[in-house]
Amino acid sequence: MKPARSKKKFEKPHSWSQLKNGQWVSESIQTRIDEWCPKLFGYHLLKLGGLSCELTSFNCNIQHQVHLDTHNPLHNVIADCYELPFIEKSFDTVLVAHQLDYCSDPHRLLREVDRVMMDDGYLIITGFNPLSFTGLASLMPWRKNNLPWSGRMFTPNRVKDWLGLLNYQVIECDRYALFPMQRYRTMWTWLENSLGDWAAPMGSLYFIVARKRTYPLKPLKPHWKLKRKLTPLGVNYKLSSRQHRQG
Q: The pTM is what?
């Protein structure tokens, strides 16, 4: 397994129009976000990256929403994703759409996101699955330098392991789009549904929802104490009592 950190600088897309089938990918993610928005509560929501900025969340209960990117015109904050200009525990929800795929140090990015995340906050991550038709297409030489294959793809299980190390509980992990083709989309969708759950690990896209959990560093001592059990009298006690009587 290759290390997550890389010295190579990746071209990061700032709009879904830069990706092949980007409109369909954004629509599929938007459908899942619309299902989760009513479940999210709090005061502040952060959309990290241009792709996240273009995803709408009008039906979300969180009113204050920050769009952070360097190029997308929908941003309202310009900053580096590795050094977010926010204090610790600022956001109740963070959306990271396809940022790990084009990040040279995903561990650092997740740690920075964790720094600004509130306790019990929600983290939504989307990305491409390398164990899919989309991932296999990146092996073709004429596609290596083109989006979306020019980045790196991490398996959902690997991303879940990273989240586990940061003490996040994965609530949902949806893998879908077994056939990522726009033409004859209805037929491909019907075929994917007919194959059932066994084909899900080969889905081209993943949608992960995780929640930040906190535990006490020092275990609490119980207020109750165990009572000592009654033990039978030993042989030595009997002998000593018999000698005492004889004396």
A: 0.81
